[in-house]
Amino acid sequence: MTPFVAPSLPSFSEVSAVLCLLLIxxxxxxxxxxxxxxxxxxxxxxxxxxxxxxxxxxxxxALVYVVAGFAWQGVAGRPDHALVVAGKTWxxxxxxxxxxxxxxxxxxxxALVVLLQMFSVGLAGMxxxxxxxxxxxxxxxxxxxxxxxxxxxxxxxxxxxxxGWLAQLGVxxxxxxxxxxxxxxxxxxxxxxxxxxxxxxxxxxRRGKFSAEGMPAALPGHNxxxxxxxxxFAWIGWMALNSAGAMLFLGVEPGRVVLIAVNTILCAAxxxxxxxxxxxxxxxxxxxxxxxxxxxxxxxxxxxxxxxLKPASAMIVGGVAGIIVVWVADFLEFQLAIDDxxxxxxxxAVCGLWGVLAVALLGDVGAAGVGAPGLGTHxxxxxxxxxxxxxxxxxxxxxxxxxxxxxxxxxxxxxREGELQGMDLSELGAGAYPEFDIHGxxxxxx
Amino acid sequence: MKLAxxxxxxxxxxxxxxxxxxxxxxxxxxxxxxxxxxxxxxxFALAVRSHLVLPAEGE
Lengths: 446, 59
Known about the structure:
The structure holds two protein chains of two kinds.
Chain A: E1 2-5, H1 14-26, H2 28-41, H3 47-73, E2 79-85, E3 88-94, H4 109-131, H5 138-161, H6 169-173, H7 185-203, H8 224-250, H9 257-283, H10 288-305, H11 311-334, H12 344-362, H13 380-409, H14 416-421, H15 423-428, H16 439-442
Antiparallel strand pairs in A: 1-2, 2-3
Chain B: H1 2-22, H2 26-50
């Protein structure tokens, strides 16, 4: 193992740095959007718990990331631990000090990376909240987020954004520009999505979700208006996230931010509409909650590919995401008996993987000027496949193993009584809607 | 079955990483990467199957 210095972050003019900073300030809208969607698609008896959970996740994620996460993630251009294999250096973990010591928090790219990541890791942590809705204890949520922000996320983020081995696949192995993921389809969304899958597996389904014959019961979200409003907030946050990420991690010019925003909008719009059309064809009427999921799926898929797509390609990427999300949500529930109330696995994991693949299938990585000078785009699809293999073959077992161990020492699922009572009353002592008698409606199938 | 599934996931990833790190020929590299991914899919299928909820558990 040798110390290794990866290629540096892009250098910014002051105007670019200020633009990037302003974009980063808008990223929390994405988290607000996800929190509203999680709450709206869950049951009324757990609505306050879902929103408080989102705040707790954002807080724990930011704290743990600053204490330890950044030390493992680092930024490109600073020393990391690297393995030498076949004469090539493979950076695998950063060597930054804890508590951001030694880092000047100014308008430098490294400081902007830290700020963006404090929000991004919280965003990744909110994704499993959706799959664990109505049965995931608040304390366990915080502990699980600490594991995500302290280990899983920083490690993979170092490999992709910190100059690690996935980013170096182009230089080391001639695979295009290396693994490319500007806005975090893989690093934020899929990492959060596979953690959500682990949580659904560890927690098991909600009581009453599956009948004795194994048929799933419909447990509709309590407030679709909240979920749809969350889509609008997420839209703003995602445009900022994709743009800031592309500037910081891919070094795209500030002028390309407009293209990124246009592509992000097109992806979300075509995905939301595709989901509405698919549900209209299948069920006779457009399904509001699945259309909301479709909208977010488009945003998720856009994150990796937005800097490299032409607008027409962005529509295709979004349209495919909208179709995938409806089909996968049904497949997970009816065939695999996975109870994922907010659709986190289909939206964030599956459509995130689609976004990563779309970079190579429909994007023009060369046009964006990404990567070290002189690298071609030949083999880009293989680099993206290696990234996907890493998410499935490394991140999923790691996050499952960590959460399984956590469950051994601190039970993650609420008790039977607490679950029947609702997470609001059982964990917070008060409901989100104390003036309304609505719990009876929760158990009715509509 | 659960453990076997997760071990296959990790094994598939190891095949992929070894292929890109050690194999010089593009064709063999692609072949081994696809083989690694197939191994991962097999492991994923096992992991999914081990988590299928029995009807009685869903009550």
